[in-house]
Amino acid sequence: MSDNKTTVTDVAVDEYLSQVEPERRRVDAQRLDQIFREASGFAPRMWGPSIVGYGRYHYRYESGREGDFLATGFAPRKANLVIYIMPGYTDFSAILARLGKHKIGKSCLYINKLDDIDLDVLKELIAAGIEDLGRHWPVEPS
């Protein structure tokens, strides 16, 4: 059984965010940090080299696989902002319908820039994701 490749690191979140390029992506990433802090109530930690995570949960599957992972977070990628709403059990289509321009994956939400979405709806989505995750696995500060 393999371990998770994405784990908590000791890199300072502020240091990481200050180096995000281009500047427009950096400004959006710093704003996302504030939004996630407010919506989650958790302080951020770096998970792997590029994911800013808020909170954590320990999972154990029937297969025996277990580990720790971020409860929610984001990654400022070159192509877009990736937002992680874990673990993807619930259909959030009613909230997403009000969010604005985005694309979705299994547990990821892709946004080109924050100007494309309603930030209050994003906060609602983050909180709903954490609440849903907490029904499956205990969520705690990271």
Chain-wise SSE layout:
Blueprint: H1 13-18, H2 23-40, E1 44-47, E2 51-60, E3 66-76, E4 81-85, H3 93-99, E5 103-104, E6 108-111, H4 119-136, E7 139-140
Helix pairs in contact: 2-4, 3-4
Number of strands: 7
Order of helices and strands: HHEEEEHEEHE
The CATH class designation is: Alpha Beta
Please identify, by name, the CATH architecture.
Answer: Alpha-Beta Complex
Radius of gyration (Å): 15 Å
Instruction: Please identify the structural class as seen in this structure.
Output: alpha+beta
- The level of helicity is 25-40%
Can you tell me the CATH topology?
Aspartate Aminotransferase, domain 1
User: First CA to last CA: what distance?
Assistant: 24 Å
Helix count equals: 4
Low-confidence region ranges? none
Morphology call? globular
Strand content: 25-35%
Give the overall average pLDDT: 92
How many domains, in number, for the residues?
Answer: 1
Largest pleated sheet? 7 strands, antiparallel
What's this entry about, in short?
The protein is an alpha+beta fold and 142 residues long. 35% of the residues lie in helices and 27% in strands.
Summarize the structure in words:
α2 (23-40) crosses α4 (119-136). The protein is built from four helices and seven strands, in the order ααββββαββαβ. The protein has one domain (13-135): Aspartate Aminotransferase, domain 1 (Alpha-Beta Complex). The chain has helices at 13-18, 23-40, 93-99, 119-136, and strands at 44-47, 51-60, 66-76, 81-85, 103-104, 108-111, 139-140. With 142 residues, it is α+β, with helices and mostly antiparallel strands. It is 35% helix and 27% strand. The mean pLDDT is 92.
